[in-house]
């Protein structure tokens, strides 16, 4: 791997071009910075942007920080992703952009979404933060939207703790986004401290008690600055290696996910090809938190990502009326994500499956 940090940047961009076939690749401080910069570059201030109701809060923050109006869209109950019938119902609100996400690394129907967006002249930002290396309708994830983003943040498929990428085939858009990105702050110790504070708060806010509106508002004010930053060159040192090792990384995830499919065949999971970030397991919502606690007590690093964005958006933009999102709400209340990263092996998958089966039997 390159010994000099600047060469790591060139190598990372080249590898991402090769993985996706994209012409333009920019490295960003985080995935959300790319979403923010694309919305600003396309002058989405005051315009309606559609996003899944059960995606990561940082996507919502990026939309708000760009001055756009977020509109939560319900998802398909079986896939957890946006679908055409849900999107169709949003047309009355005259949206200008849509941010489809490949939830858990499982493909959103991009072929249909792109066709629909072209017909209605919406700008598409494909959120491939969780789907690096996945194939989507015969093309790589990240190769679909007018713009796309990846994340190399903590816990992502290629985990560099920090970093992201913005991709497009449109050279003018890339130049505009690059210009916006020069205006965001450089990562430093203050941002690191704020990140740690926010991670602790995020954990607390989503424990058993729902967060209050004032807590959401207070944290957005204090930590909203985390939505975008640039990284010093040194932070790209390990990314080329992560990208070179991607096929092996994905094969490991696919193998472990197949084992979970076999061991937990009584639980529903949408079994589609993808680049599986974490194994999505759905359990009845009344028992979800008990099971999660049991897994934590037994040192399984399980999570419940992502909670519905409805309470957060209600708090941050109370003037907006949020349409009902029953599928996203139901999925958010019943999801458990099981880790599939390199620290997990087949024995750990069997142990975790046994913990689940003995509790749920
Ligand atoms: C679905 C989804 N979209 C976008 C992002 C943004 O990535 P980043 O954390 O690098 O800004 C994340 C990250 O947590 C995510 O989970």
Could you give a quick summary of the protein structure above?
By secondary structure, this protein is of the alpha/beta class.
Outline the secondary-structure elements:
Layout: H1 5-20, E1 24-28, H2 31-41, E2 48-52, H3 57-65, E3 69-73, H4 84-88, E4 97-98, H5 110-119, E5 123-127, E6 135-136, E7 139-140, E8 147-151, E9 164-168, H6 171-181, H7 189-205, H8 213-223, H9 239-244, H10 246-263, E10 278-282, H11 285-297, H12 310-316, H13 326-334, E11 335-339, H14 346-360
Parallel strand pairs: 2-3, 2-4, 4-5, 5-8
Antiparallel strand pairs: 1-9, 6-7, 8-9, 10-11
Helix pairs in contact: 2-3, 2-6, 7-8, 8-12, 10-14
Characterization of this structure:
With 361 residues, this protein is of the alpha/beta class. It has 2 domains: 5-237, Aspartate Aminotransferase, domain 2 (3-Layer(aba) Sandwich); 241-360, Aspartate Aminotransferase, domain 1. The chain contains 14 helices and 11 strands. It has helices at residues 5-20, 31-41, 57-65, 84-88, 110-119, 171-181, 189-205, 213-223, 239-244, 246-263, 285-297, 310-316, 326-334, 346-360, and strands spanning 24-28, 48-52, 69-73, 97-98, 123-127, 135-136, 139-140, 147-151, 164-168, 278-282, 335-339. The strands form 3 sheets. A 7-stranded mixed beta sheet has the order 1-9-8-5-4-2-3, sandwiched between helices. It has a two-stranded antiparallel sheet with strand order 6-7. Strands 10-11 form a two-stranded antiparallel sheet. The longest helix is centred in the C-terminal third of the chain and has 18 residues, at 246-263. The chain is globular. 45% of the residues are buried. The model has no long low-confidence stretch (mean pLDDT 94). The structure holds pyridoxal-5'-phosphate. Pyridoxal-5'-phosphate binds at residues 30-32, 55-56, 58-59, 101, 127, 129-130, 151, 153, 164.
């Amino acid at each position: 791997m390159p010994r000099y940090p600047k060469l790591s940047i060139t190598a990372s961009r080249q590898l991402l071009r090769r993985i996706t076939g994209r012409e333009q690749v920019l490295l960003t401080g985080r995935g959300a910075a790319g979403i923010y910069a694309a919305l600003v570059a396309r002058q989405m201030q005051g315009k309606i942007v559609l996003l899944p109701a059960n995606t990561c809060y940082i996507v919502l923050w990026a939309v708000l920080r760009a001055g756009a109006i977020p509109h939560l869209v319900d998802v398909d109950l079986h896939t957890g992703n946006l679908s055409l019938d849900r999107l169709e119902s949003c047309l009355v609100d005259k949206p200008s952009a849509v941010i489809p996400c490949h939830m858990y690394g499982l493909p959103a129907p991009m072929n249909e979404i792109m066709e629909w967006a072209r017909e209605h002249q919406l700008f598409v930002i494909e959120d491939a933060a969780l789907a690096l290396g996945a194939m989507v309708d015969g093309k790589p994830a990240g190769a679909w939207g007018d713009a796309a983003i990846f994340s190399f943040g903590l816990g992502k498929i290629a985990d560099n703790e920090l970093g992201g990428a913005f991709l497009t085939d449109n050279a003018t858009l890339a130049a505009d986004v690059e210009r916006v990105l020069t205006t965001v702050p450089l990562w430093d110790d203050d941002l690191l401290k704020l990140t740690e504070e926010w991670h602790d708060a995020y954990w607390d806010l989503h424990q058993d008690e729902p967060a209050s509106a004032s807590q959401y508002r207070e944290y957005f004010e204090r930590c909203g600055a985390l939505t975008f930053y640039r990284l010093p060159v040194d932070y790209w040192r390990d990314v080329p290696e992560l990208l070179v090792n991607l096929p092996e990384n994905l094969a490991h995830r696919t193998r472990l996910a197949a084992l979970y499919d076999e061991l937990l065949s009584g639980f529903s999971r949408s079994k589609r090809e993808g680049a599986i970030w974490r194994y999505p397991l759905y359990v009845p919502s009344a028992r979800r938190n008990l099971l999660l606690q049991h897994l934590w007590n037994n040192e399984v690093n399980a999570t419940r990502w992502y909670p519905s964005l409805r309470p957060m958006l209600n708090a941050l933009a109370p003037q907006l009326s949020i349409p009902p999102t029953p599928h996203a709400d139901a999925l958010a209340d019943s999801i458990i994500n099981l880790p599939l990263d390199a620290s997990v092996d087949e024995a750990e998958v069997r142990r975790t499956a046994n913990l689940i089966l003995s509790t749920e039997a």
